[in-house]
Design a protein that fits this description.
The structure holds 2 protein chains of 2 kinds.
Chain A lengths: L13 H27 L6 H11 L2 H29 L7 H29 L2
Chain B lengths: L26 H29 L9 H8 L2 H29 L3 H27 L14
Helix pairs in contact in B: 1-3, 3-4
Classes of the chains: A mainly alpha, B mainly alpha.
The complex binds protoporphyrin IX containing FE (HEM).
């Protein structure tokens, strides 16, 4: 296919953007996971070193970053379920657009719940 | 006068769509299936992880060395974290492998990127597994009462 072709059923529509979003969130989560295993490994080295690193996770700026990360995980998780349904459910391809709306609604609701809880804990300061 | 054009019989695939010799192994199909099965398991594992660490109780403010020691005193959480580590790393590694295959067009570039990926994966999986199994609540700096 020519790299400049356009006007297909897929290109530029929701299906393509959900694929882009799934790919980008997958890579972001993977990179975070590498770092997260390394910081948790400090529990095997020194309790104070672990507590020092974790206390940076408890600052407001990091809490915003964590909230963004959870937004990525939630989109990847819900859209991943949609992909599985597209592949395994007979009507999957027919309803993929409707399911994407379902993904977005579920994502907004669950993310709002998480963000309110997490940010009020991190900014409220116990 | 009409001309009849026979249906194409050629099985030829344009060489530009081919990157290597055709393989008869079912590895790619198993990888595809693994992405879906591990995805379903990861929803349960990751949601449980986020709820127990960030939602209940004092959430992020309660996390400390003592919090981790309390969780890993329970073999269920040890197993939970081990399963999450392995499944997420294998799922993520396979996903990034797909992405490298998609975008790195030169054979040597692909080989290098995947080599770096696999080394990082093995290192993180081995390290994480050792940390879970050799965890010591009385490691240097611990102020837990039993130490
Ligand atoms: C929360 C549950 C998760 C579900 C339901 C899920 C589901 C999926 C599915 C169905 C695919 C598509 C595979 C394919 O196209 O053959 C996929 C791809 C991917 N996932 Fe996940 N996943 C989850 C968690 C994760 C985690 C934790 C990571 C990172 C460590 C991750 C990283 C990736 C990557 C990098 C891809 C490749 C994207 C691509 O090829 O465009 N996923 N996921």
């Amino acid at each position: 296919m020519s790299k400049t072709s356009s006007g297909t059923l897929y290109r530029g529509h929701e299906g393509m953007w959900s694929w882009v979003g799934h790919r980008v969130t997958g890579v972001v989560i993977f990179l975070y996971l590498l770092v997260h295993v390394l910081d948790t490994a400090l529990v095997r080295v020194d309790a104070n070193a672990y507590n020092a690193v974790i206390s940076t996770y408890q600052t407001p700026w990091m809490a915003l970053g964590e909230t963004g990360l959870v937004a990525a995980i939630l989109f990847h998780a819900f859209n991943g379920l949609r992909l599985i349904l597209v592949d395994f459910w007979k009507q999957g391809t027919k309803y993929q657009r409707q399911m994407l709306w379902g993904v977005m609604i579920l994502w907004v609701v669950v993310f709002a719940g998480f963000a309110i809880r997490h940010l009020s804990l991190a900014f409220g300061g116990h | 006068m009409s001309v009849t054009i026979p249906a194409p019989r050629s099985q030829r695939i344009d060489p530009k769509y081919k990157r290597g010799p055709k393989s008869r192994s079912s590895f790619e199909m198993l990888a595809w299936l693994f992405m879906r099965l591990s995805g379903v398991a990861l929803i349960v594992l990751i949601f449980g992880h986020l709820i127990s660490n960030l939602i209940v109780g004092d959430g992020i403010n309660a996390i400390s060395f003592g919090f981790v020691a309390g969780k890993w005193a329970d073999p269920i959480w040890q197993f939970w974290d081990l399963a999450m580590l392995w499944l997420a790393m294998l799922h993520g590694t396979n996903g990034v492998r797909t992405i490298i295959n998609d975008y790195a067009e030169k054979h040597s570039t692909r080989a290098w990127l995947k080599g770096i990926l696999y080394v990082a994966t093995i290192f993180i999986v081995v390290l994480g597994t050792l940390v879970i199994f050799t965890f010591d609540p009385c490691v240097a700096g611990s102020t837990l009462p039993q130490c």
